[in-house]
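Researcher: Sequence recovery benchmark, item below. Answer with residues only.
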């Protein structure tokens, strides 16, 4: 697309794009896709509704043209989408894109890590909420132990992918794992990011009382480790970091509930069926799949995406209360991808 053909300018920064490639998952994590809501009869998106890899590539190029520097692939479980390395390869070739990552439950990494690395993937974030087999099986709703995830982490390291670990902390469920997970990750040279349990979607039964805040996690960690804060690496960085003073390993906190960061939010989300969400807590997205399939030019697509972004006034986390959580219709996490 010719630069000088575009008259649409963004009036707020857009740096980061999350692309959900599939809404299905092989887990049923109770904070994300509880098994009683996502049972055998649940209707996932049909294949024809999903954006093709060519469509994703086209939209991604326009987002990069508009300023996006980082793309993260997510889901559902992104590695369940057939031939994901093919998409990674297409995206890696986009000029101006600086970083491409993947968020995964890790189980399929032994199969795909090598191909993903060869295709140009830089980093994976692997979700692991407990080291205890029984508890982990209970959390993922499928009785799957930690073994397959740990093997996935090893495979990613072996093939040279950067690895970070994501741990959602829910009070009374896995807060007992905060310190063991920290020790494990520190010993294995892995950055662990604690994620405050969020009220995404409407099936997980979220209550404010279930949230363990960054402050509480930090206090607990300080009883076991010497840590010092690390300055943000760039504007809009979502995680806040500390470093263990006796190593170079960092630990991160995603404080979406206790210390919201809407004013510096530069992230757009593209769902697997081609809807743009300007906030994780939107109820409806803005369709661009049918717009594209009906023959929109790149110019028109860029204009539409700019208009959607310029119109946004999202600050859900800044305004969150127990009441706003009940009042609002929100899209499920497995659909929009975190
Ligand atoms: N299946 C992949 C995985 O689990 O990493 C990618 C999709 S998952 C929706 C993306 C991230 O969202 C994961 O790190 C997961 O732990 C996190 N997540 C899911 N539900 C959440 C919730 N209610 N609150 C906070 N984080 C959540
Ligand atoms: Fe699946 Fe990831 Fe959601 Fe767990 S958090 S149910 S692995 S999409
Ligand atoms: Fe961005 Fe919405 Fe999260 Fe605020 S609540 S940081 S606007 S995604």
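Model:
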């Amino acid at each position: 697309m010719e630069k000088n053909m575009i008259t649409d300018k963004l009036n707020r920064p857009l740096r980061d794009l999350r692309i959900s490639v599939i809404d299905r998952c092989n887990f049923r994590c109770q904070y994300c896709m509880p098994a009683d809501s996502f049972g055998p009869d649940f209707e996932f998106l049909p294949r024809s509704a999903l954006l093709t890899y060519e469509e994703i590539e086209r939209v991604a190029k326009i987002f990069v043209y508009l300023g996006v520097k980082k793309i993260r692939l997510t889901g559902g479980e992104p590695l369940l989408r057939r031939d994901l390395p093919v998409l990674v390869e297409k995206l890696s070739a986009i000029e101006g894109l600086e970083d491409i990552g993947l968020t995964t439950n890790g189980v399929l990494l032994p199969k795909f890590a090598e191909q993903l690395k060869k295709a140009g993937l830089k980093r994976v974030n692997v979700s692991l909420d407990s080291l205890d087999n029984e508890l982990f099986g209970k959390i993922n709703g499928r009785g799957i132990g930690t073994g397959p995830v740990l093997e996935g982490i090893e495979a990613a390291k072996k093939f040279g992918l950067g690895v970070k670990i994501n741990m959602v902390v829910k009070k009374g469920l896995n807060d007992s794992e905060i310190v063991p997970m920290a020790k494990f990750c520190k010993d294995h040279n892995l950055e662990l990011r604690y994620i405050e349990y969020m009220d995404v979607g409407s099936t997980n039964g979220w209550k404010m009382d279930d949230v363990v805040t960054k402050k509480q996690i930090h206090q607990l960690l300080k009883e076991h480790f010497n840590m010092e804060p690390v300055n943000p690496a760039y504007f809009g960085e979502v995680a806040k970091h500390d470093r263990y003073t006796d190593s170079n390993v960092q630990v991160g906190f995603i404080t979406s509930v206790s210390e919201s960061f809407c004013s510096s939010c530069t992230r757009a989300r593209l769902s697997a069926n081609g809807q743009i969400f300007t906030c994780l807590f939107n109820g409806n997205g803005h369709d661009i799949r049918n717009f594209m399939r009906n023959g929109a030019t790149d110019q028109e697509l860029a204009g539409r995406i700019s208009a959607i972004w310029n119109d946004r006034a999202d600050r859900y986390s800044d305004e969150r209360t127990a009441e706003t959580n009940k009042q609002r219709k929100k899209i499920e996490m497995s659909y929009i991808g975190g």
